[in-house]
């Protein structure tokens, strides 16, 4: 009987060295920011509309301030835009936003007529579970405002300790004024220690392909 009680207590309080979830094999999946941290993403857009081409640009994301509960104030700055074929857009103005649940973009809403929505898409590509998870676990998330929103899941696909990385599949619905418009799917690779998104490739299914590749400064 004493042995059984000990086993029950161990199950209730956990064992030192095990993941915080209490399950063997679970890994932390919450973004850890550092003040002054800067990540530069080579960003590529390619439209799926015939004859519309695409664009490449550089997206620099700087952590301006650390906020409570592990959140951060981020500055997005775009530069070095190159347009391809018939694609037409203006370089977006800088965007500042606070992160929120699942490392999403807080209350930020894009400017009508601008492609600064890329800040929200990049945060979608950087979504986290906000808790320890095991490979195969799928975590729901929801984010949105009056104009743009996303609702979906992030699923941990693999952990590669030798590369200090982890990979996740992100599936979401894009919402415009609360209505589902299109599906968006992204596969993202993260730094295992900080859950900083390293690379992400995916698409807004019927409209555009996205690719983000980082080089931290």
Report the sheet-strand fraction.
over 45%
Tally of helical runs: 2
The number of distinct structural domains comes to 1
CATH topology: Lipocalin
- Identify the strand order in the major beta sheet: 4-3-2-1-10-9-8-7-6-5
Main beta sheet strand tally, sense and closure: 10 strands, antiparallel
Indicate the radius of gyration in whole angstroms. Answer: 19 Å
Low-confidence runs (pLDDT<50, min 5 residues)? 1-23
Q: Which structural category fits the helices and strands? A: mainly beta
DSSP strand tally = 10
Write a structural description.
The protein is mainly beta. The chain has a single domain, classed as Lipocalin (Beta Barrel). The chain has two helices and ten strands; from the N terminus they run αββββαββββββ. It is globular, with a radius of gyration of 19 Å.
Topology:
Blueprint: H1 2-13, E1 38-47, E2 54-66, E3 72-84, E4 95-98, H2 118-125, E5 138-144, E6 148-160, E7 165-176, E8 179-191, E9 197-204, E10 208-216
Label this structure with key terms:
single chain, 217 residues, mainly beta, Lipocalin, ten-stranded antiparallel β-sheet, 2 helices, disordered N terminus
Offer a quick outline of the entry:
9% of the residues lie in helices and 47% in strands.
